[in-house]
Amino acid sequence: MKVDVLDLKGQKVSELELPAALFEAPVNIDLMHQAYVRQMANARLGTHQTKVRSEVAGGGKKPWKQKGTGRARQGSTNAAQWVGGGRIHTPHPRSYEQRMPKKMRQAALRSALTAKAADAGIVVVAGFDLAETKTRVMAEALNNLVGTSTALVLMPVKDQNYDSVMRSTDNIENAKVLLASYLNVRDVLTYEKVVLPVKTIDALMAHLG
Fold this sequence. Notes:
Radius of gyration: 27 Å
CATH topology of the largest domain: Ribosomal Protein L4, Chain: A
Number of helices: 7
CATH class of the largest domain: Alpha Beta
Strand order of the largest sheet: 2-1-3-6-4-5
Strand content: 5-15%
Distance between the termini: 16 Å
Order of helices and strands: EEHHHEHEHEHEH
């Protein structure tokens, strides 16, 4: 698949053949769904907690005698039907972690990138060297590249240029900067456009190829 390579002004400077291994892979919707659900599940803290009847305070004495009062039998005010009593069938701390083999995660990412490319959602730029580390400069560049679409900018390595782009994007609501090695299905599917500097493609090949 051939795409135009743009500069930060949105002007075409050349053409590039995208690697078929990443952008023309079989699209497996079920695999992408599994990877997405796994990512969302693994992000859950699982720190929810409620007290059962053995953990609430009080309740040591029988509220009233068993018979003769005309009221229902009660053994303890710790029971669930009492105000302030313990809870049953309620959440307790647990791990929501789901495991997924590395090759399956990589295949899911290739599927997501392929689907994004088929939908004209891949934007390739010659480089992402900003003149200044300013939100205004980054916003102008993104407007030239993707217009009003939301954008995921993938950088090849964590260096000074990455830090500049990251700081310049912090206050832009519809954009996110990510290292190629941190690419995930959720972000690929969430953002309308994926912006790739040419060097990032090599980093993706090393990560997913």
